[in-house]
Fold:
Amino acid sequence: EAGVAQSPRYKIIEKRQSVAFWCNPISGHATLYWYQQILGQGPKLLIQFQNNGVVDDSQLPKDRFSAERLKGVDSTLKIQPAKLEDSAVYLCASRQGDTQYFGPGTRLTVL
Amino acid sequence: GQQVMQIPQYQHVQEGEDFTTYCNSSTTLSNIQWYKQRPGGHPVFLIQLVKSGEVKKQKRLTFQFGEAKKNSSLHITATQTTDVGTYFCAGPASGTYKYIFGTGTRLKVLA
Structure:
């Protein structure tokens, strides 16, 4: 069974630029999460989707972050414009039952 | 808001020694999950505990859920170099599948 796929794996941008991350969850998993993991910290939930609907986005900085999951499969997370403090690993996870399966993450560096 | 804390933050042990990490939630949890994240890797689901006082074992790993369902522990017997990584606990916000991750315990095993 294929795991959660994410791209790109690494991204370096300058502050105020825009960036987008892509996630393809495990086939059949209805729930998809985006997390932000700052170095040395635990993952922090940004947004949760159930199929193509948003379940929770209470911790998503909506002035600069946006996410969508069209057709209830792939998802994209966008940051526009990026700030220095957005430097982190962005993890996508999909859930089946009680188990979350994480992708390899995208490491974002904002200069 | 709900907080999940772990102690210690770091632990260095000699190979063959035991290791324990403790997880404490500010609120009662319906369940608790444990994840392992290898250096440079992504979190990998280890186990979920649901019942008050529940104890589960996976080879050298023993997981326990407190009686009040606000704390949990992970004990590793006779650590090996393959146990290196950061161990996170995660608990759901009340009535949701929104998981709050703990601060993590980074384990280093010296050969």
In short: Chain B has a mean pLDDT of 95. Chain B has no helices and eleven strands. The first strand of chain B starts at residue 4 and ends at 7. The radius of gyration of chain B is 13 Å.
